[in-house]
Amino acid sequence: MSQFANYFDCFDSDQLAAEYPLGDDLYARYKGMSADALKALQNERFLKVVDRAWQIPFYQRIWSKAGVKPEDIQSVDDITKLPIISKSDIMQSVQDYPPFGDFSGWEQLPKSERSSVVFHTTSGTTGKPQPLLFGPKTREVQNRLVARGYRMMGLPDAAHVQSCYGHGMVNGGHYMREAVTRYTNSLFLSAGTGVETRSVQQVNLMKDFDVNVLVGFVDYIKRLADVAKENGVIPGKDIKLDMIIGHFGMESRQSILDAWGEDVQLFDWYGVGDTGAVAAEGPDHDGMHVWEDAHVLELLDPQTNEAVTPGDVGNMVVTCLFKDDIYPLIRFNTFDLTQEVLGENQLGLPFKRVRGFMGRSDNMVKLRGINIYPQSIGPMLEENSAFLGEYICRAVRDNTGRDDLVVHVEVSEKSEGLDDELQAILKRKLGIQVQVELALEGELTPLTQVDIRQKPIRLIDERKG
User: What are the residues whose beta carbons fall under 8 Å from the beta carbon of 145, sequence distance 6 or more?
Assistant: First the structure.
């Protein structure tokens, strides 16, 4: 009979609880900690992760090609000597070493020595899905960091939490469920996306089971409020939410409160499938606290990859300090933009804070010298009450080679002159003229796919060359 370690044999629960504390233990461990003490902790964990990475062909190849030798990395201060990697490097690994690539370190182990792993993929909406492998320890740290954020936010006792994150092969909904069911006393409703559970059914679940916390991507969360009203269910009366935990990005928080009620507490957090939860908003509502005991977060200039001046916008480049079993992740460029929030941490934690997701540097449209991020368009349009919240941008190029941006906007009615009003708003806020085309409610859904995607489409690039 085969003998192998199961999932829970692969880590020490008490040790993880001490190393990645939750609730009151978070403050007991870190409140008032000096910058030097935090850096020493990061240094210890960083060197362990780097040692593991040197055992994996993916990093051996990339680091050696860059001229890096093991002795070059003596502390976390040497992190900039290591080349930055991105999803394109990982997908190249998958192409060269199918089907899993050679970046995780799992495939290289003899089968008798392999631990249990959690396997997911990315959604594959922009190409072939990327495999995601998580070792047991890595997975549990990620789960704890999600729960840490929720508990810091003030998740109510015995909450009824409904999740709109996708299930299936994607990671999001699964590790929300694991985090909530293992590290809180909440009831968890894994509704998933609008494809997995139709929107009207999601509304009925919320109403029937007294859901008071809703988690997911804010675009769909706002859509659910509309579906509720369309079906005679009144948000704030028939469904009373205490808390919405979502990815707000540049969205207007007032628009979410208008949809679900002024008494709802709103909290933002940030993470991607490869990294897990990186940062979360706290009760101070003063930026998102970066879990720096678990990550090194660099903010780098999208053009030069040099560190930006504190307070300036840069790409989030993440090094996970806990991924020393399966799939080490070192200097991973998310291409997600944010900026550091300056000033004293009101919670007394030693961690830096960031503003949150501000767009993608690889999803930018440059028009006549102006950088335009499609994710920023929606909040700009909310100045006009006719805007219903849904929009999509088309980047086009005419026969002369001139680029333009056409913004399709859902509005309550196509009144005369409304397109000119919205166009004027965008010109004032963007500093450049773009075209606006009006659509009625629901007409853009086939393009944005807000009902079926975790992250709706905001840009269609029709330019050639």
Answer: 20, 271, 276, 277, 291, 294
The amino acid occupying position 437 is E
Percent of the chain with pLDDT over 90: 76
Write 439-445 long-range contacts (CB < 8 A, 24+): 439/408, 439/409, 439/410, 439/411, 440/410, 440/411, 440/413, 440/414, 441/226, 441/388, 441/390, 441/410, 441/412, 442/410, 443/410, 444/390, 444/391, 444/392, 444/408, 444/410, 445/390
Give dist(CA 396, CA 460) in Å, integer.
9
pLDDT digits (tens, 9 = 90+) for 149-193: 999 999 999 999 999 999 889 999 999 999 999 999 999 999 998
Return d(Cα 433, Cα 439) in angstroms, integer: 19
Summarised one tens digit per residue, pLDDT across range 209-264 is 999 999 998 888 988 999 999 999 999 999 999 999 998 877 788 889 999 999 99
C-alpha distances in Å from residue 5, one per residue of 11, 111, 117, 317, 324: 10, 12, 11, 34, 18
Peptide bond into 283 cis (omega under 30): no
Instruction: Let me know the angle formed at the C-alpha of 252 by 246 and 257, rounded to the nearest 5 degrees.
Output: 70
Question: Where does residue 431 fall: left (phi above 0), alpha (psi -120 to 50 degrees), or beta otherwise?
Answer: left
The predicted structure's pLDDT at residue 464: 67
Residues 439-445 have a mean pLDDT of: 93
461 pLDDT tier (thresholds 50, 70, 90): confident
* pLDDT at 405 > cutoff 90: yes
**The pTM is what?**
0.86
Stronger pLDDT, 29 or 167, i.e. the higher one: 29
**What does the alpha-carbon distance between residue 371 and residue 388 come to, in Å, rounded to a whole number?**
25
